[in-house]
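I had to read the description of the data format several times before I understood it. Each protein is reduced to its one-letter sequence and a matching series of backbone shape codes. The format is easy to grasp once an entry is in front of the reader. For illustration, here is how one protein appears when written out as sequence plus structure tokens:
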Amino acid sequence: MPKERHAAEVRRARVLMVDDQPIARKGLVPTIAFAYFSGVKSIRAQSLMTAALTGVIVFNLLLIVVLDNTFDGYLRVTPEPLREILERIDAIESRSKGFGSARCLS
């Protein structure tokens, strides 16, 4: 449990140091406006390109929100797989202490 808590504290510190969401919000409107005002002869093609760009940006922002909250919501990651992996690593380390090498050939 202390390893998990330490990993969570380190991640929280990294998130607090860098806040990218205001940058994303500030860049959203100029990017779409630039795409809208780039000259294309067909208004239909221009509308499709602008809608596609808007969709890609919205999808990327949605991914940022979903992946930033991996332990909450409908699609969440439980801590059980991480605990199992940590137990396996501890078992491998305890077995390999007498051999002088941490490499596992199984």
The two ends are 27 Å apart (CA to CA). The chain is about 70% helix and 0% strand.
